[in-house]
């Protein structure tokens, strides 16, 4: 079964995701960093799919403007890998 990511490829899609209701988790992933790949696999393996959280995936290499916009909106300094949990524009948690 495929992991339930919603892939963000545009800043418009990011804005719509942030404006949507409910809790969201944004995962920033660098395809060029082995540590990012390890973190992604670990996250997917350990994630509780019963949680009511919408999951968004940002490929940093292919979609850097989306990542930069999320950093600006959330006021969370960019790192990778990185997970940012938000409700609206309010950051509930961030981890790198």
Keywords:
96 residues; 5 strands
Report the order of strands and helices: EHEHEHEE
The gyration radius over C-alpha positions equals: 12 Å
Largest sheet: 5 strands, mixed
The N- and C-terminal alpha carbons lie at a distance of 26 Å
* Secondary structure tally, helices: 3
Give the DSSP E fraction (strand runs of 2 or more residues): 25-35%
**What does the average pLDDT come to?**
95
Brief digest:
The chain is an alpha/beta fold and 96 residues long.
Tell me what the structure shows.
The chain has 96 residues and is an alpha/beta fold. The chain has three helices and five strands. It has a five-stranded mixed β-sheet, with helices on both faces. Strand 2 (23-29), helix 2 and strand 3 form a beta-alpha-beta unit.
Q: Topology, pairings included?
A:
Elements: E1 6-7, H1 11-19, E2 23-29, H2 34-46, E3 53-59, H3 64-74, E4 82-87, E5 90-95
Parallel strand pairs: 1-3, 2-3
Antiparallel strand pairs: 2-4, 4-5
